Amino acid sequence: MSDAKTGLDRRMLEALICPETRNTLKYDAEAQELISETAKLAFPIRNGIPVMLVDEARKID
Q1: Per the domain annotation, does 24 fall within a domain?
Q2: Spatial separation of the C-alpha atoms in residues 10 and 29, rounded to whole Å
Q3: 43: containing domain
Q4: pTM for this structure?
Q5: Between the chain's N and C termini, which has fewer beta carbons within 10 Å?
Q6: Per-residue confidence band for 4, with pLDDT thresholds at 50, 70 and 90
């Protein structure tokens, strides 16, 4: 099943892990980000593609 906003497959999103901590990510559909609570990073989803680069991630509190 895919997300209506992004067209991303939910199973694919669940399979992605944080490149820094190797922990699972939380999908924030509203912000179009994948959140690593452990690393305190938010990875953007641009044009339906998750950008899994630490340099591109936004730091979160």
Answers
A1: yes
A2: 11
A3: 10-59
A4: 0.84
A5: C
A6: low
> How many domains does the chain contain in total?
1
Query: For 12-60, how does the pLDDT look when each residue is reduced to its tens digit (9 = 90+)?
Result: 877 899 999 999 999 999 999 999 999 999 999 999 899 999 999 999 9
CA-based nearest residue to 37, from 28, 25, 55, 20: 25
Structural domain contains residue 3 = no
For residue 20, give the CATH number of its domain.
Answer: 2.20.25.10
